[in-house]
Amino acid sequence: MSDDADSRPPLEAAGTTSGTTSGTTGRWRVEVVDESASTNADVGDRFRSGEREGLVLAAEHQTAGRGRLGREWVTPARSSLTVSFLLVPDAAPPERWPWLPLLTGVAAAAAVRRVTGVQVALKWPNDVLADDHKLGGILLERIEHDGTAAAVVGIGINCHQSRDELPVPEATSLAIVTGGPVDRSALLGALVEELEVRYDEWVAGADLRAAYLELCTTPGQQVKVAVPGGEVTGEAVDVDEAGRLVVRTSAGEEHLGAGDVVHVRPEGP
């Protein structure tokens, strides 16, 4: 690891046991590894090898991480919270699964607010914002093995990066926003707890739309939504019961699913 990494405290999982960097919080089994090409890919491999729901894998350094649509997500060692959850919501029908990344956003926002006090917001469908800059992102991948479907939910939150370590000017980190260090271990623990609450509510059939809309800044904006083969321009007015963005255009309302959207941008004056 670099000198910068050496100056940044390592992650500690809740309930760490001697000789390992792992722990158990309720039904969640938290593991921290020094390096992973992709925590989502590793968790997917573990599921196909028989791992059950509840695995939480965090990496100090992710070398080939992916965001939505195959975008690269690589961060300096110990600079971020990079973690993936294995969920097997077999009690929930497939049509409700698009809410999984959205409820994860609610959990991530709650965890950041709880640990740091930063009043983060959400941009539909999967960005965590601080001061209108991207603080983190969420990637859900659906996989199957032996007839069972699972969701691997990856979360990346920028914690310690300086401005010159961020990939684009539109990004930020908690250290930049707060002006001080961030306890990544406390953030990991809070994220596990907050996600457990929202996930259990969702599995039980709860409607999390109001909680998501309270945090989401996209409705009310004039937007340009890039979709395969074109663009949808209009006012984002809502997120519907299926988790789709509702855009009011000159031709009527469009309901856009996250899987069909390349990106959403505010429309300039």
Describe it.
By secondary structure, this protein is an alpha+beta fold. The chain folds into two domains: 3-215, Bira Bifunctional Protein, Domain 2 (BirA Bifunctional Protein, domain 2, 2-Layer Sandwich), CATH 3.30.930; 222-266, Roll (SH3 type barrels), CATH 2.30.30. It contains six helices and 15 strands. It has helices at 3-6, 39-48, 99-116, 174-178, 184-203, 209-215; strands at residues 22-25, 28-36, 55-62, 65-66, 72-73, 80-87, 121-123, 127-130, 133-145, 148-158, 222-227, 230-239, 245-249, 252-256, 263-266. An eight-stranded mixed beta sheet has the order 1-2-3-6-10-9-8-7, with helices on both faces. Strand 9 and strand 10 (148-158) form a beta hairpin. The radius of gyration is 18 Å and the shape is globular. The N and C termini lie far apart (45 Å). The relative contact order is 0.14. The model is unreliable at 15-22 (pLDDT under 50).
Topology summary:
Elements (H helix, E strand, L loop, with lengths): L2 H4 L15 E4 L2 E9 L2 H10 L6 E8 L2 E2 L5 E2 L6 E8 L11 H18 L4 E3 L3 E4 L2 E13 L2 E11 L15 H5 L5 H20 L5 H7 L6 E6 L2 E10 L5 E5 L2 E5 L6 E4 L3
Parallel strand pairs: 2-3
Antiparallel strand pairs: 1-2, 3-6, 4-5, 6-10, 7-8, 8-9, 9-10, 11-12, 11-15, 12-13, 13-14
Strand order of the largest sheet: 1-2-3-6-10-9-8-7
How many helices?
6
From the 3D coordinates, which CATH architecture of the largest domain would you assign?
2-Layer Sandwich
Q: Shape from CA axes?
A: globular
Uncertain residue segments: 15-22
Structural domain tally: 2
How many β-strand stretches? 15
CATH topology of the largest domain: BirA Bifunctional Protein, domain 2
* CATH superfamily heading of the largest domain: Bira Bifunctional Protein, Domain 2
Order of helices and strands: HEEHEEEEHEEEEHHHEEEEE
- Give the end-to-end Cα distance, rounded to a whole number of Å: 45 Å
What's the alpha carbon Rg, rounded to whole Å?
18 Å
Category from helices, strands and their pairing = alpha+beta
Helix content: 10-25%
Please give the CATH class of the largest domain: Alpha Beta
